[in-house]
Design brief:
By secondary structure, the protein is of the alpha/beta class. Helix content is 38%, strand content 15%. It has 2 domains: 7-47 and 294-397, Aspartate Aminotransferase, domain 1 (Alpha-Beta Complex); 50-290, Aspartate Aminotransferase, domain 2 (3-Layer(aba) Sandwich), CATH 3.40.640. The strands form 4 sheets. Strands 2-9-8-7-6-3-4-5 form an 8-stranded mixed sheet, with helices on both faces. Strands 11-15-14 form a 3-stranded antiparallel sheet. Strand 4 and strand 5 (153-154) form a beta hairpin. The longest helix has 22 residues, at 294-315. It is globular and about 60 Å long. The termini are far apart.
């Protein structure tokens, strides 16, 4: 007997993890690998803030039961206060849903809004889970471009062209993964105008909102300027608060009640059906959002140095170029030499030099060849990786 998978799984891709399979094969041969592919700061030299661990340990003994399907009240109330600090008006604890990382919120949001054959406007390059979710729920891919020449801001005209009668929502990833770009308030207002014109909501992924690398730039929560446009804001403890393995995220529903109420309830139905997420780690939410924030300043300071090393070293290599990321810990270099594909480039680099990046086409269809760098690694590891990258480029295209 052969079990045949459903057709809707055929288009599910997740390059960030898929490429690791190749690295594991190579590692078994004894080759040393420098991993710069996964956006997990905890595999490098960062540490979880102690007061968050203490909050979880303190409540561990009373957390063996199911939690409330929406999340514990303490966590939801803390997120609602965070929304107020960000300028998102009218958010109460009942407008907050605690999720298993940001990923679960993304999957639930797509599931609750899209029917077979419909589409959601997603950025390219962009976090691949959105396109995987569209595929899983039998939707149609519909991507809008980010403009490299404009510091990877969304291409507003391309966005306008891509919207059609079957478009159910617009996804905005700000700060952006994989480019590290930070959107201007002007750009966000233009996206809001488009959503308003077409009467569709915005899904605003703000996972890296506290990782702004330059003092002259600032983050704007889209929900704070959205006016009458409904917004679902995604965030998580994972990156800002250095606990990706704890799987704690949240969704914030904001905007006019009459516009969002039915959809918000649909998402909550899905949440109730899965009972609850892990209970003990939810006690870290209030501790994180309202406790000491010193680790964020130190993390940003460290990442700024590693960003600068990354940009300098890569731009010094003939055949490569990269825009300076303003947030998060990602860079998205362009491959300016002739290659069959960026996937083949990344795999060849891995095989020859033992450096693992993610190929750019794994983040959506692109005009050109790229790869994503995670520069959260130590300065020593980064410099070693860029030495190998330079050697690889010179040997093959010098």
């Amino acid at each position: 007997m052969k079990i045949v998978p459903s057709k809707k799984t055929e288009n599910i891709r997740y390059a960030i993890r898929d490429i690791v399979v190749e690295a594991r094969k190579l590692k078994k041969t004894g080759k040393e690998i420098i991993y710069l592919n996964i956006g997990d700061p905890m595999v490098y030299d960062f540490e979880t803030p102690r007061h968050m661990i203490d909050a979880v340990e303190k409540n561990w003994s009373r957390s063996s039961s199911y939690a409330d399907s929406m999340g514990i009240s303490e966590a939801r109330e803390a997120v609602a206060r965070e929304a107020a600090r960000l300028g998102i008006k009218g958010v109460a604890d009942e407008n907050v849903l605690i999720t298993a990382g940001g990923s679960e919120g993304i999957m639930m949001s797509v599931s609750a809004i899209m029917n077979r054959g419909e589409n959601i406007l997603t950025p390219t390059p962009g976090y691949p889970l959105y396109n995987s979710a569209v595929a899983q729920f039998e939707g149609v891919m519909n991507s809008y471009k980010l403009d490299e020449e404009n510091e990877w801001q969304p291409d507003i005209e391309d966005m306008r062209k891509k919207i059609n009668k079957k478009t159910k929502a617009i996804v905005v990833i700000n700060p952006n993964n994989p480019t590290g770009s930070l959107y201007t308030k002007s750009t966000l207002k233009k996206i809001i105008d488009i959503a308003g014109e077409h009467d569709i909501p915005i899904f605003s992924d703000e996972t890296y909102d506290k990782m702004i690398l330059d003092d002259e730039f600032s983050f704007t929560a889209l929900g704070s300027i959205a006016g009458d446009v409904p917004v679902v804001t995604f965030n998580t403890l994972s990156k800002n608060y250095l606990v990706p393995g704890w799987r704690i995220g949240w969704m914030i529903f904001s905007g006019p009640e009459e516009a969002k109420a039915e959809y918000e309830e649909a998402v909550k139905k899905i949440a109730r059906a899965r009972l609850s997420i892990n209970h003990p780690q939810q006690y870290a939410v209030k501790a994180a959002l309202e406790g000491p924030q010193g680790h964020i300043r130190e993390t940003v300071k460290t990442l700024r140095k590693r960003r600068d090393i990354t940009c300098k070293r890569i731009n010094e290599i003939d055949g490569l170029s990269v825009r300076k990321p303003r947030a998060a810990f990602y860079a998205f270099p362009r491959i300016d030499v002739s290659v069959r594909s960026d996937e083949e480039f990344v795999k060849k680099l891995l095989e020859e030099e033992g450096v693992l990046f993610v190929y750019g086409s794994g983040f959506g269809p692109l005009d050109g060849n790229y790869f994503r760098v995670v520069f959260a690694a130590s300065e020593e590891a980064l410099n070693s990786a860029y030495d190998r990258l330079g050697r690889f480029m010179k040997r093959n295209w010098g």
